[in-house]
Amino acid sequence: MDPAQSEAPAPRMSRRGLLALAGVGSAGAVAGLAAGLLTQDALAAAATPADAGTGDVVPFHGPTQAGITTAAQDRLHMAAFDVTTEDRAALIRLLKDWTAAAEAMSQGRETGATGAVDGPYDAPPEDTGEALGLSAGKLTVTFAFGAGLFEKDGKARFGLEGRRPDALIDLPHFPGDDLQANRSGGDIIVQACADDPQVAVHAIRNLARIGFGKARVRWSQLGFGRTSSTSRNQQTPRNLFGFKDGTNNLKAEDTDLLNEHVWAGPGTRSGEAWMQGGSYLVARRIRMHIEIWDRTSLREQEGLIGRTKSEGSPLSGGKEFTSPDFSLKGKDGEPLIGMDAHVRLAHADQNDGVRMLRRGYNYTDGSDGLGHLDAGLFFIAFVKDPRTHYVPMQMAMAKQDTLALEYLKHTSSALAAVPPGVQPGGFIGEGLFR
Question: 113 and 29, same structural domain?
Answer without folding.
Answer: no
